[in-house]
Amino acid sequence: xxxxxxxxxxxxxxGASGMGKxxxxxxxxxxxxxxxxxxxxxxxxxxxAQATAxxxxxxxxxxxxxxxxxxxxxxxxxxxxxxxxxLDVLFSNAxxxxxxxxxxxxxxxxxxxxxxxxxxxxxLGIKHAARRMQAQGGGGSIINTASIAGLSGDGGPMIYSAxxxxxxSLTKSAAVELAEDRIxxxxxxxxxxxxxxxxGGKPDQARERYRNAQPWPEHGEGDHIAGAALFLASxxxxxxxxxxxxxxxxATAAGPELSKKFPQVSGRHAQVTGVTKxxxxxxxxxxxx
Length: 289
What we know:
With 289 residues, this protein is of the alpha/beta class.
């Protein structure tokens, strides 16, 4: 029985960890060829090894990618075409926590790093994936990871939230521009998802915190986002573009109130400032004040 992505070629940034890795495995199960693009070479190699052990070795490959660098984005997409012949899906999912702490303590360098990884990368992905999809004809699907943090105030750290709001706006504008090429552009807005980026190396504690962070009585998992990405990548979503799909267990409906749930890192009373770098393999740069 054919999968929902049989014959499709997908590139997934941040594909070596968390939501991206869960999506890599789901797309492979559904018949796609997948390029795992990630900054972290160790987790990238591990992900490909795991996929190969499950019998997907001929349909998966890794390329180290700094998503804030235009040349890396181009090389990543060209790798997909050279290896698998074409490009059908780009899931721009790579992310970091980025700048945290009060706005009065946030540096310009922290702003720039956060915006580069979370927002500029999405612009570059849309730009270069669209060029290649236009050249080959037949349309395609571009999916961007935004966040419920970009939907309202107090949904996430301030600079992170601003970057994710930019992703949502860019997604909508690009969807309009690229519609005549039959290139769909959509975003996913995750809520509190337990991933290596978010759990700070303490997944059990994160599960307990996140279990109570939304009305739904379970914490979010990478597989929940993978299912949403599968829908947006598949023909089931062929009339869906310019949408931001919220996957948050009802957190937005209830009101995020991040600074009340996690006061140590969000809002004016946070006691830590600096930059977190998620699962990139690079150390966070944080300090108390």
